[in-house]
Amino acid sequence: MFPCPRISSYTVICNTTNEYCSCYDTNDLLIGCFKQRLYGDGCYRSQECANNYNLQCNTSLYQCQCLDHYYYNGSTCMSMITYSQACSILNGFCVFDYWCRQDLALHCRNFTCTCSLCRTCFWDGVRCRDCPTSWEIVISNGTRQPRIYCYVKVDSHVNWDESVSICSTAATSFFGPTSHLVYIDNLQELTDVSVFATNQYYDIFIGHTNSYNYPQWFLSNGTLSPPLHWCAGLATTYATLACTRLLIGAACVTNIVCHGWTSRYICKLN
């Protein structure tokens, strides 16, 4: 039960399970409680929609629609299903992809939400990916969170700017062109990338730069970089443009000149 939220000479109590409070009209007169609306009904605000049916007001359509990551099964809104979960409801099974988290590229196959849309598609621990056949899948068994990555080593020397440009179009997968010069997200990936590069490589470029604001480090796409594991004795901020490379044997990061230095590099599927 919930009172209309304004001081007045009297109070109307609404049952918020199936009612919403429309307290005052344009003349400042108390109106009262109204039944919450169902899927597809018109609305102007989410409290008008039945919350016990997992509805919210879509203010573009002015209709009660399902909450994000929910789907409508004909009578109520159900939570979308994630990887490897059975696409079932009550005693039945699904035949609809939209019952799965399609924003994670999941589809319903054999009554299970899966990535099996293509021969090279896989679940990386977060969403579905498609590793091109010429690339390599790297399985991390780190203690942080087991992940699966898709990398390719490029055995040619270019400068850092060129490596960023080449990696951005290096992969055309089932989900479209989705690759970049490898970023180092955490210490586990630092180890994973170093092992993948092997000691045949002395160093590789990685996609971190201070080009957007010299005192700070960013990914090559402009988002703020996670903390980097710098090699001992190095400064970590610079007053001029700098980019980064990974020393494989030491598994640590050092700065380089973005345009003049050349090295090999690794591209990563997004």
Instruction: Provide the β-strand percentage band.
Output: 35-45%
- Counting DSSP E segments of at least 2 residues, the number of strands comes to 24
Terminus-to-terminus distance: 48 Å
Number of helical segments with 4 or more residues? 2
Largest sheet: 8 strands, mixed
Stretches where pLDDT is under 50 for at least 5 consecutive residues are 24-28
Order of helices and strands: EEEEEEEEEEEEEEEEHEEEHEEEEE
Shape label: elongated
C-alpha-based Rg, rounded: 26 Å
Number of domains: 3
Q: Which CATH architecture of the largest domain? A: Roll
State the CATH topology of the largest domain: Mannose-Binding Protein A, Chain A
CATH level 1 class label of the largest domain: Alpha Beta
What is the CATH homology-level superfamily of the largest domain? Mannose-Binding Protein A, subunit A
Structural class: mainly beta
Characterization of this structure:
With 270 residues, the chain is mainly beta. It contains two helices and 24 strands. The protein has helices at residues 160-168, 187-197, and strands at residues 2-3, 13-14, 19-24, 30-35, 55-58, 63-66, 70-72, 77-79, 88-89, 92-93, 107-109, 112-114, 121-123, 128-130, 136-140, 147-159, 172-173, 176-177, 179-181, 203-209, 218-219, 243-247, 252-256, 262-269. The strands form nine sheets. Strands 15, 16, 19, 20, 21, 22, 23 and 24 form an eight-stranded mixed beta sheet that branches. A two-stranded antiparallel sheet has the order 1-2. A two-stranded antiparallel sheet has the order 3-4. The protein has three domains: 2-68, no CATH class; 80-114, no CATH class; 128-269, Mannose-Binding Protein A, Chain A (Roll).
